[in-house]
Amino acid sequence: MSGVRGPAARHGLGSAEEMIAEARKAFFVMFGIVAAVWLAQLVNWAQGYALVREYGLRAGDVTSLPDILTAPLLHASWAHIESNSGPLFVFGFLAAYRGVARFLGVTLLIAVASGAAVWFLSQGGSVTVGASGLVYGYFGYVVVRGLFDRHLIDTLVGLVMGASFAFLLTTAVPGTPGISWQAHLGGLVGGLVGAWLFRDRRPRDSAGAKGGGTKGDGTKGGGTGTDPHPRSDLHKELGDLGLL
After folding, report:
1. Contact between residue 94 and residue 144 where contact means Cβ atoms under 8 Å apart
2. What are 140-195's pLDDT values in tens digits?
3. Nearest-angstrom CA–CA distance, 240 and 18
C-alpha cells in the first residue's frame, strides 16, 4: 500500500506546489494591474480628467481605435474606480491562477471584444472608460472555464461565482440606463469565447478506459486496475491541491 501511495503523494505535492506558485504569480499580477489603474486615476484626477478626454474610447471614431487598450485603465470618477477595483481583483485573480500566460491572452481578447462592442454599438461621439468590461469578461471566463478544461474544481468555482453574481447579467443587456452595457456585454462575450479558445487541449489520461476492465476487480481485458468511478477525477483534483 505504501509503495502505491508514495508516487501518488509526490505527484500531488508537485502539482499543488505548481498551482500555489501560479496563484502567487497571479496575485502579484493582479495587484500590479489594480495598482496601475489607481496610478492612472491619480494622474487623471490631477490633470482634471484630461486622460479620459484624450485616451477614452470614442464610439465610431476610427482614430480612437487604439484607445480600446487604454480606456479600461481609466475611470471618470473616484466612485467609478472604487466600484470596479474589488471585482477586478477578485475575478482577475480567479481567471489568472491557473496560468498567467493564458490569462494575458484572455485579457487582450476581452479588452478587444469589449472595446469593439462600445465602438460599434454606443452612440456616435460618446466617450467610454472603465475596467468594467474586463470585470465582466473575467466573470464569464471563470464561470465556464472549468467546463471547457474539464477541471472539476474550476467547475465548482464557476458554479459558485455564477450563482453569487448572476445579478451582473442584468447590466449587460441593451437599454440599461446610466452605464455602458455595451462594454459589459462585449466583455462578457469575450470572456466566454476566451474560455473556449484558451481551453486546456492536453489529452487526459485514459489508461483506465483503454484497459477494458469491468466495474469489478479491473482485470478483464488486461486492465490496469485504475478506478473507473466517476468520482476518481474529483479525487485527482483534490489530490493535486494537496487536500487528499
Report:
1. no
2. 999 999 999 888 888 999 999 999 888 888 888 887 777 899 999 999 999 999 99
3. 9
H, E, C per residue of 81-118: HHHHHHHHHHHHHHHHCCCHHHHHHHHHHHHHHHHHHH
Q: What is the pLDDT of residues 37-63, one digit of tens each?
A: 999 999 999 999 999 999 999 999 999
> How far apart are alpha carbons 60 and 130 in whole angstroms?
18
Cell (9 digits) for 100: 498567467
From residue 101, how far is each of 23, 96, 105, 163 by CA, in Å?
A: 12, 8, 7, 28
Of 175, 100, 97, 166, residue with least CA distance to 136: 166
DSSP structure string for 218-229? S-GGG-------
Residues 6+ apart with CB under 8 A from 131: 37, 72, 73, 75, 81, 84, 85, 88
Cell output for 86? 474589488
| Grid coordinates of 35 | 495598482
d(CA 116, CA 143): 22
H or E stretch at 11: helix 2-46
Cβ(84)–Cβ(130) under 8 Å? yes
Q: Which CATH number fits domain 8-197: 3.40.50.300, 1.10.1660.10, 1.20.1540.10, 3.40.50.970?
A: 1.20.1540.10
**Beta 127-128 vs 57-58: how paired, if at all?**
antiparallel
Q: Would the pTM count as exceeding 0.85?
A: no
Residue that the C-alpha cell 470572456 belongs to: 191
Residue with cell 509503495: 3
